[in-house]
Amino acid sequence: MAQEMRVLLPADAEDLTSYQGYTNAGGYKALEKARSMDRLDLIEAVKNSNLRGRGGAGFNAGMKWRFSYSVDTDEKYVICNADEGEPGTYKDRILLETVPHRVLEGMAICAYAIGARQGYIYCRGEYPFVVEALNQAIKDAKDSGALGDFEVEVRMGAGAYVCGEESALIESIEGHRGEPRFKPPFPPVTGLWGKPSIVNNVETLAYIPLIVEKGSDWFKSIGAANYPGTKLLTLTGDVVERKIIEVPTDVTIRQVIYDFGGGIRGDKNFKAVQIGGTSGGFIPEELLDTAIDFDSMNAIGAVLGSGAVFVMDETRDIVDVVERIAKFFEHESCGKCIPCREGTKRMHEMMERINHGQGTGDDLSNLERLGLVMCKACLCGLGQAAPAPVLTTLNHFRDEYKAKLN
Amino acid sequence: MKSDYTEIIAAYKEKPGGIIEAYHALQRAYNYIPEEAVASAAQAFGMSKAEAWGVATFYSYFKVGERGRYIIRICESAPCHIAGADKVVAALEKHLGIKMGETTPDGKFTLEFTECVGQCQATPVITINCKPYEDVTPEGVGEILAKCQ
Ligand SMILES: Cc1cc2nc3c(=O)[nH]c(=O)nc-3n(C[C@H](O)[C@H](O)[C@H](O)COP(=O)(O)O)c2cc1C
Ligand code: SF4
Ligand code: FES
Fold first, then answer.
1. Range of the domain at A380
2. pLDDT digits (tens, 9 = 90+) for A70-86
């Protein structure tokens, strides 16, 4: 049976929440070490570890840092993305609640590497208690001198899913509506207030001190070769144990559901699992032996995304769930670009019609056509990924749609 | 005593991009953003009124105009949806005699939908003034409401 592997999360008996607890366990030593290194060597070490972003896009963190490093300017920013809006996801909250200083240390290391003095943590508005704890952690780390001249400020999101997208997040910190920017230029070069800005996910940043301390080779030896390390997953839906787990990235979806999650509730059979949050694809039984790493998931037309694992048993109505998801995207579309603003609305309309027994075969082909257009024509990842639940269920669970047609 | 909204806003004036933080502070004090405060924020942050309105209305966490003292939000994201969020909605509507989106006549409770609030370890989830309640059942709703005094 596959085993959990706790690297980021503290062991059961360990309390790393407070500054004292964290430093007693060797915390902030990695920052000291990083600051004694040549900045390019440090970036090279992060790059060589092949740590890929845990926020959904899977970009090599060291490579991203290198872009900002190379820009010669006085002001640069490190931004921790704690917006965590993807339904079914709460791993960043757990990290910020249990190892806040690990995240702060990761930010400080990044700041040193790229040459920034100011950091921001953009934390979702639904977590006011996390914001409070973070402000305390920042104060403790500042008072003790551990952060040196690196300043960190927490900014709160306000219930807009799209603000997890890095350029929308930056707009939001600037005090604007959270609408994504046209790219390029990308944030590492032109970000917050037009300055080079590294936006990294909480989980990505939490890994940095560990990689600096234990080395790139240690990190590379864990999990899948092309997406090494562990990954936090949050299990929801019809799985016996609804909980957070940390596993090496080479475990399979089946192991996640059956070994770690204890299988399906109420001795029912499995029907589908949606991984990566609400924008992830639906995965049927025959693909459960796929490994969860970024590339393996992409290869089956799914995503690892945020690491949300939403399990549905045999009694669940796929079309009904997808209608609910389509409403989510209509609501969360920021409205800046037409393919998404119009597309999510029409997609929801069609899903509603089908779910209420009034759909026709034309609706199915129109959904597919619209979905393909949105994947290509939408400005940001929200609109591009919105059709995935519809398209993957039309692919794997078409009979359920057909059974509801007029 | 509610503090004056211009004072609340002024505390964030020097913060670059601080209007969103100011709106949060207003909501902490009033539970909503008073309509007149939007114009005041526009002035403080050197924006047009239209821009300040644009920001206030973009974010679903903000509400311009009065709301109840207890804001009850029900998560309707897929994990909560299949765990029976609709039954919790029905129970809340029945207990309070109002529909989703409405406020009770005594100004005590407001019912709102929300997407995932990040407490999906125990679905369905509701929040009351940001505090999460987990594994909510239709039967348990009365007891939770009784605590709002
Ligand atoms: C609609 C949308 C929502 C997103 N939400 C989040 C989020 O909540 N947290 C996050 O870290 N990344 C989110 N992302 C990805 C970010 O744009 C960005 O890629 C990420 O923060 C980069 O950090 P990483 O390289 O460490 O993963 C989202 C992207 C899109 C398109
Ligand atoms: S794809 Fe949707 S969310 Fe993204 S910019 Fe366009 S309208 Fe806004
Ligand atoms: S899905 Fe309801 S709290 Fe996350």
1. 318-402
2. 999 989 999 999 999 99
- Assess whether the C-beta atom of A340 lies below 6 angstroms from ligand 2: yes
Residues A195 and A273 in one domain: no
**Short-list A311, A165, A277, A274, CA closest to B115:** A277
Does residue A88 sit at the B interface (CB-CB below 8 Å)? Answer: yes
The answer, yes or no, to whether residue B1 has pLDDT greater than 50, is no
- Residue A283: which H helix or E strand, with range? strand A282-284
Asked whether A172 lines ligand 1 (CB < 6 A), one says no
Assess whether the C-beta atom of A66 lies below 6 angstroms from ligand 2.
no
Q: Tens digits of per-residue pLDDT, A198-231?
A: 999 999 999 999 999 999 999 999 999 999 999 9
Distance of alpha carbon B24 from the chain centroid:
10
The CATH class for the domain spanning B70-146 reads: alpha beta
pLDDT, position A31:
98
Bridge-partner residues for A92, per DSSP?
Answer: none
Q: Helix (H, G, I), strand (E, B), or coil: what is residue A22? A: helix
Position A398, amino acid: R
Average pLDDT of the segment spanning A337-348 = 98
**Residue bearing tokens 């034309």:** A362
CB pairs under 8 A between A and B: 121
Q: Tell me the CATH number at A398.
A: 1.20.1440.230
Q: What gap in Å lies between CA A67 and CA A60, rounded to an integer?
A: 11
**Does the pLDDT value for residue B2 go beyond 80?**
no
The tokens for A268 are 């029912």
Length of chain A: 406
CB contact under 8 A, B114 and A316: no
Given pLDDT bands bounded at 50, 70 and 90, which one contains residue A406?
confident
Mean pLDDT of chain A: 97
The C-alpha atoms of residue A201 and residue A261 are separated, in whole angstroms, by 25
Query: Is A144 inside any structural domain?
Result: yes
Residues of B with CB under 8 A from a CB of A: 16-21, 23-24, 45, 54-55, 58-62, 76-79, 81-83, 114-123, 127, 130
Contact call for residues A244 and A233 (beta carbons, < 8 A): yes
A128 touching chain B per CB within 8 A: yes
Q: Do B34 and B21 meet the contact criterion of CB atoms below 8 Å apart?
A: no
